[in-house]
Amino acid sequence: MRLFLKLKKLKVVLRELNKECYADISQRVVDKRKELDDLQLQVMMPNVDMDVKLHLSVIWKVIRPFACKVDWNRVVWCPLYIPRHSFFSWLALLNRLPTKDRLQSWGLVSEVTCVTCSDGSESRDHLFMGCSYAHIIWKELLLACGISRSPTDWLSEFTWLIRYGKGTTLRSVLLRLSWNSFIYWIWRERNARLFCNAFKVEHDVLALIKESVRIKVLDTKFVVVNSSTAALCSSWNIG
Ligand SMILES: [Zn+2]
């Protein structure tokens, strides 16, 4: 009986002790979590004042890697861009598409003949500019943008594009969209020939490019038909 009473008393004491230990436990967890978050931020951003209210934008600016601004940014990632086309255009610009010359340098293929002209080695520079197939298509696209010039090589053409494809005029928008779409559809045609034995003539690919650009421009309601844009609107069947 005595032992029973002692145990009962012990139980009461333990219960009180537990109450004390777990009082405000949820608030203490929240406080400790905030303490841990602050500590992590201090490690990640030692130069930022922790007393200032932090916004996600501030944190993003601190943790993201910074790189120099590039002059081709507005050509590839222009405001009205078509994501899929711009992505391939970006890969081509960085020369990261698996063209045959690159595959050969990795020892993956031995044959590098261009599949669109069968006359030349496939490289980024050849496929998109040196090749007679691409040359015809790009020249027609320039004409559709009201520009009469004969493209020479990849570097000079892209340098020209950076210079003349700037701005928000209808012509510059069409020019940038045409370029990115041109890269995408040429690459697609190359893959269709290589892997599916399916061929399209230049005129068909040109029509696909023009339709992609036309739909995008119409979709954005960007076009205002006036005396200075009438010719372009007629050429692209927009407005
Ligand atoms: Zn070729």
What's this, in brief?
The chain has twelve helices and no strands.
Structure description:
It is built from twelve helices and no strands. The protein has 239 residues and is mostly helical. The N and C termini lie far apart (99 Å). Helix 7 packs across helix 8, helix 8 runs parallel beside helix 11 (202-220) and helix 10 packs across helix 11 (202-220). Zinc ion (ZN) binds next to loops.
Number of helices, where a helix is a run of at least 4 consecutive DSSP H or I residues: 12
Low-pLDDT regions: none
Beta content: under 5%
DSSP strand tally = 0
Protein name: Reverse transcriptase zinc-binding domain-containing protein
Organism: Erythroxylum novogranatense
Pfam family, one: zf-RVT
Please give the structural blueprint.
Layout: H1 2-21, H2 25-44, H3 56-63, H4 73-76, H5 83-93, H6 100-105, H7 124-130, H8 132-144, H9 154-164, H10 170-196, H11 202-220, H12 230-236
Bound molecules: zinc ion (ZN).
Zinc ion is lined by residues 114, 116-117, 120, 126, 131, 133.
What descriptive keywords fit this protein?
239 residues; mainly alpha; 12 helices; 64% helix; 0% strand; binds zinc ion
